[in-house]
Amino acid sequence: MSIVYLNGSFLPINKAQISVLDRGFMFGDSVYEIIPVYSGQLFRLEQHLQRLARSLEAIRLANPLTPLKWQQVLQRLVDENGAGDQSVYIQVTRGVAERDHVIPPNIVPTVFAMSKPMKCERAQTGIAAVTLIDFRWKRCDIKATTLLPNVLLRQEADDRGATEAILLRDGRVTEGAASNVFIVSGDLVKTPPKSHLLLPGITRDLVLELLASAGIPAKEAEIDEGELRCAREIWVTSSMREIVPVVVLDGQPVGDGRAGPLWERAISLYQAYKQALAVPQAANVS
Ligand SMILES: Cc1ncc(COP(=O)(O)O)c(C=O)c1O
Questions:
Q1: Nearest ligand 1 atom, CA 175
Q2: Could you give the CA distance from residue 255 to residue 233 in angstroms, rounded to a whole number?
Q3: Does the model's pTM come out above 0.70?
Q4: CA of 20 to the centre of ligand 1 (A)
Q5: Quick one: pLDDT at residue 285?
Q6: What is the CA radius of gyration of the chain?
Q7: Nearest CA residue ID for atom 5, ligand 1
Q8: Tens of pLDDT along 37-59?
Q9: Residue 227 belongs to what domain range?
Q10: pLDDT tens sequence across 8-27
């Protein structure tokens, strides 16, 4: 039975309960984070906590915990669940109040975190994706739990035999239904710039950092639909899936229909980065 954190207590998941009047349930008035854990260590924790703080600020909700307290809570959660490789989910809701759209004063937030063993979702051979119109709201930079559009888009992709939907707004790529998008155009790696229309992915930023450190030309620039369709390579990135090559787009092969050479380089840089982080812990253990 997994152990979860709820409002200051660690308890078995089947004992964790919240009110039906919680605004997270009533309105989706809440934000979340998902953090990968490798060998018991929270990966890019600082960046995830900074994004959580930005999401909370954007929805006018005071951060209930300091960064140090978050770290303590999350590390204990990881340890209680047997360390190893996990995915940690955090959700902070506005809290419980009589149903009213207006934000009630002095409301106490609901703070929840759970962890589960990491499912290895990495697709080494590549996935199929479809393009769909991005009909979400205009604050996709907030990691809000109001994910109904993403659910419907991802389901539409699934119905069409694809693993991910690549979203287009006004003829330009924004992101995936649950990922950021990169393309290789000529010899240049491109990903759309940060804006209110996409989530500032932690993996996206790390991939850009790693490409820069390896001297691989990459830039943040708008990608129009034509460029997407002519790309030599397409990748989608997320904390749980890391960097995944898209080898089929709308039923057509991307490049030669196989994971490309720049993806190979990017994923090996990513794995090397993870390995390097694991070294100090291995040294401590021995
Ligand atoms: C809509 C969306 N964009 C991008 C991402 C990737 O973000 P990260 O790399 O921080 O996991 C996610 C992750 O779930 C997502 O849901």
A1: 3
A2: 6
A3: yes
A4: 28
A5: 38
A6: 20
A7: 179
A8: 999 999 999 999 999 999 999 99
A9: 127-273
A10: 999 999 999 999 999 999 99
The per-type count for the chain, helices as H runs and strands as E runs, is: 7, 15
178: CA distance to ligand 1 center in Å?
A: 5
Tokens of 240: 């749980």
Question: Going by C-beta distance under 8 Å and a sequence separation of 6 or more, which residues neighbour residue 131?
Answer: 165, 166, 167, 168, 225, 228, 249, 250
Question: What is the 219 CA–ligand 1 centroid distance (Å)?
Answer: 19
Give yes or no: residues 227 and 157 share one domain: yes
Q: Encoding tokens for residue 122?
A: 């990495």
Residues 60 and 158 grouped into a single domain: no
List C-alpha distances in Å: 153 to 168, 178, 182, 205, 252. 12, 10, 19, 24, 20
What positions carry a catalytic annotation? 143
Same domain for 142 and 231, yes or no, is yes
pLDDT digits (tens, 9 = 90+) for 215-274: 999 999 999 999 999 999 999 999 999 999 999 999 999 999 999 999 999 999 999 999
